[in-house]
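Morning - adenosine monophosphate inputs below, output right after.
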Amino acid sequence: MRMVLVGAPGSGKGTQSQRLIERYGIPQISTGDLLRDAVARATPEGLRAKAAMDAGALVADEIVLGMIRERLAKDDVAPGFILDGFPRNLAQAQALSALLATVGQPLDVVMLFEVDYPELIRRISGRRSCSRCGRVFNIYTSPPGTPPHCDRCNDEPPLVQRKDDDESTVRQRLAVYEQQTRPLADYYAAQGLLHVIDANAGVDEVSARLYAVLEALPNVRSAVGRSASKRRE
Ligand code: AMP
């Protein structure tokens, strides 16, 4: 199953991706994670991307597309993939369509996560991650315990807020989403791929809504059966 998740920062794409990985046995590809990794490793792409990321702007298409081409060429995407945070504008969406057409593997579905503005702000302001393993918590919706710590990393490294989660950068990222990313809804609706999910609810409820849509798609039902029997082996 080849799937794209579109949604504003804080709409829950990353959280839901973790559940979709488990349920369908396909990898998540997050361009935000790939870019943060490139910045951390100070690769040439990372060095070029950093300023745009710090400002809450989009990184140049050529950098992101290069990363996506490389990632989609790996073997683990053969059963499908979850694209999280890509595409982010029309040029990227068209490049993705062209790339997938050349390998005869078109998208199966695009899920658009709709969340009200005040709820997005609340979720982003509560987001914290472990400085060691990168695991993401939310002080409102998935609290890290008292005192706040990552229970996977025993020596309790501090939980940190992402640099681009500060208030003014978040406002900029939300504006970029409205201007450049949300219009992708029309592009994918015209292809009959778009499903809109009301993602204002809690994590479990949003998962249930996603599964209901996905498992009504014929090719997804069979993929669930395959990955469930693989897990039983
Ligand atoms: P995310 O983790 O998806 O919120 O992405 C964090 C930041 O990485 C964004 O604010 C952008 O600066 C950059 N970024 C992530 N994905 C893309 C993309 N597909 N195109 C351009 N920039 C991106």
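Note: The mean pLDDT is 90.

O.
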